[in-house]
Amino acid sequence: MQLNKNLALDKLSALQMDDMPVMEYTPTHCTLDADWFKKYSALRREFLSSLSDSLEEIAFMNLSQNDFINLVMGRALPENMSIRFRIPLVWGGELKIDNMFLCLTFPHSHNLDKFIIDQSDARTVFLPNPEKKVYVTTHTGGGGDGGNATSDRLSQSAFNAMSGREG
Question: Is 95 inside a domain boundary?
Answer without folding.
Answer: yes
